[in-house]
Amino acid sequence: MEILIATKNIGKIKEFKGMFESIGHNVKSLIDFPDITEIEETGTTFEENAIIKARKLSRLTGKIVISDDSGLEVDALNGEPGVYSARYAGNNKNDEDNINLVLEKLKGVPTEKRTARFICVIAVVFPTGSTETFKGICEGIITEEKKGNEGFGYDPIMYIPKLNRTMAELTKDEKNQISHRGNALRKMLDKMIIFR
Q1: Is the pLDDT reported for residue 104 higher than 70?
Q2: 3-class SS at 162?
Q3: Nearest to 144 by CA among 78, 93, 179, 99
């Protein structure tokens, strides 16, 4: 079965490929469809954005499309960066800029108030229009400095107390076991027999 993952993000593509190719599915991404232009995320929630992308791409390609919207919510920042996680420091900024902005805004905030979570909502849209969504959460604490070289995005500042490491210090397999995306994918795979 061929599944289209609605992203050009290399980190996300690797995570999805690792999970789906291990159970025998052919995974394509937006990198394989260069003629498809960027789909604007106009939703105000992770769920809305995931559905918008998946529905449009399924209509364009006729394929099963899996789209996720995910991000970081920091309690001390009233839930920021939230749906703006990828462009928190500005549209032309990168992961490093986003991380630095979060750390700057949390200067002086004590460890016990630096609680945060990664949230991922996955939307699966079939060519028939049928849609399912699945939500995964990974709780942690924002560190005062970056640690680790694995992963992407905010992983270097997301400390997981039960593992005593940041997300960027975990192996790919360790991360998949506890990550927000891994949790959402497992919920999806548990429910949707078509992917087994």
Answers
A1: yes
A2: coil
A3: 99
Q: What is the mean pLDDT of residues 187-194?
A: 75
Judge contact between 178 and 171, C-beta under 8 A.
Answer: no
Domains along the chain with CATH numbers? 2-195 (3.90.950.10)
Bond before 34 cis per omega within 30 degrees: no
Is residue 131 pLDDT above 70, yes or no? Answer: yes
d(CA 97, CA 66): 28
- Determine the 3-state secondary structure of 98 from DSSP: helix
Do 187 and 135 touch, CB atoms closer than 8 A? yes
Instruction: Give the pTM.
Output: 0.85
Catalytic annotation present for 155: no
Phi, psi of 168 (to 5 degrees): -80, -5
- pLDDT for res 96: 94
Residue type, 32: D
Over residues 135-145, mean pLDDT: 97
Q: Residues with Cβ < 8 Å from 52, sequence gap 6 or more? A: 39, 41, 42, 43
- Catalytic one of 69, 75, 97, 190: 69
